[in-house]
Amino acid sequence: SQQGEEDPQALSIQEGENATMNCSYKTSINNLQWYRQNSGRGLVHLILIRSNEREKHSGRLRVTLDTSKKSSSLLITASRAADTASYFCATDARGNNDMRFGAGTRLTVKP
Amino acid sequence: EAGVAQSPRYKIIEKRQSVAFWCNPISGHATLYWYQQILGQGPKLLIQFQNNGVVDDSQLPKDRFSAERLKGVDSTLKIQPAKLEDSAVYLCADGQGANTGELFFGEGSRLTVL
Known about the structure:
The structure holds 2 protein chains of 2 kinds. By secondary structure, chain A is mostly beta strands. Chain A is built from no helices and 11 strands. Chain A has strands spanning 4-7, 10-14, 19-25, 31-37, 43-50, 55-58, 61-66, 71-76, 85-92, 99-101, 105-110. In chain A, the strands form 2 sheets. In chain A, strands 2, 4, 5, 9, 10 and 11 form a 6-stranded mixed sheet that branches. A 5-stranded antiparallel sheet of chain A has the order 1-3-8-7-6, with no helix packed on it. Chain A starts with a strand and ends with a strand. In chain B, strand 5 (44-50) and strand 6 (53-56) form a beta hairpin. Chain B is mainly beta. Chain B is globular. The interface between A and B is medium-sized, with 26 and 29 residues.
């Protein structure tokens, strides 16, 4: 079964705007990861946040984690057309780094 | 450092035929995963190996799917016989080990079952 669910399913913004994607999950986790997938390609790891962390930054990316609400958010600041892709969250449902993915958010950044 | 290699990139077969996919992970990475990604959906974990042992295969349809990881390195995923609903991209990923996080994905093998 899928563990994470992303929201919204699709997001369209203008270049320069910020994009926020949310992820909710069902069970306790050790870590939550965000990945990006360009059309027809494999997934690329963006950022990992552990269950004892609340916020993490990497370049234009900011991830938050609220374990009490079983939710995470990914913020991309100052978006670019090249950020157009699908974004997935993944969690380890059984603590073995058995990463299970949600359905993803399809982000379109218009130039 | 070379990435995760998968082959073939594309495969078209008739239903009830068999197919095999191959994955060569990054050298030294202990965990290996096979995912199935149906168009418009997120990847679904089929099987996870730690070295050459199975960690999780709870979502692998064992009546038709099989996977092995010989000597804890390369892996093959086989489907026999294939059904129309098996049309998907099969993604191989690896990681440095349990609880060490980041997965590295190959480009995937796209299967079309007619």
